[in-house]
Amino acid sequence: MKILIINGPNINFLGIREKSIYGNTTYKKMCEYLEEEAKKSEININIVQSNVEGELVDYIQNAYGKYDGIIINPAAYTHYSIAILDALKAVGIPAVEVHISNVHSREEFRKKSVTVPACIGQISGFGIYGYVMAMKGLINYNSGV
Ligand code: DQA
């Protein structure tokens, strides 16, 4: 099974930005951790990040025909990117939306996700472990159970 993990704006600043909300783990360390977890689950992952909306759309489009699942943290774009919603709908690859923080316990504007309707579901508030939960969720989804 091949999963593409897509991270949106400012996720590359993990370990630097608002540590009380997003934790101390750096983006590089998180990627290493996710690679290890993917190995344990015997799946292949590829992790990408961009601060640019159109590049995120390109990553989603380029996944077409190549990946069995997408894990996406669209970051701030979650709350207003119709382009990302449309791209996820266009490729039709099973996707899980992940948020490191609990977006439902923060500002009002973070409670609304315009991208999640194109996903199987959303994981929010479990820190970087949320990406591992999403991997397991996609593996289970793929198994048809
Ligand atoms: C985030 C939550 C978003 O509201 C925010 O804009 C982010 C990160 C999260 O992972 O908790 O940049 O997606």
Task: Please tell me about this protein's structure.
This protein has 145 residues and is α/β, with parallel strands linked by helices. The protein has a single domain (2-143), classed as 3-Layer(aba) Sandwich (Rossmann fold), CATH 3.40.50.9100. 37% of the residues lie in helices and 18% in strands. A five-stranded parallel sheet has the order 2-1-3-4-5, with helices on both faces. The longest helix has 15 residues, at 129-143. The protein is globular and about 35 Å long. It starts with a strand and ends with a helix. The mean pLDDT is 98. The structure holds 1,3,4-trihydroxy-5-OXO-cyclohexanecarboxylic acid (DQA).
Percentage of residues assigned to helices: 25-40%
The H/E string reads EHHEHEHEEH
Structural class: alpha/beta
Number of strands: 5
- Count of discrete domains: 1
Which percent band covers the strand fraction? 15-25%
CATH topology: Rossmann fold
Rough outline: globular
Strand order of the largest sheet: 2-1-3-4-5
CATH superfamily: Dehydroquinase, class II
**CATH class designation:** Alpha Beta
Instruction: Give the helix tally.
Output: 5
Brief sketch in words of this structure:
With 145 residues, the protein is an alpha/beta fold.
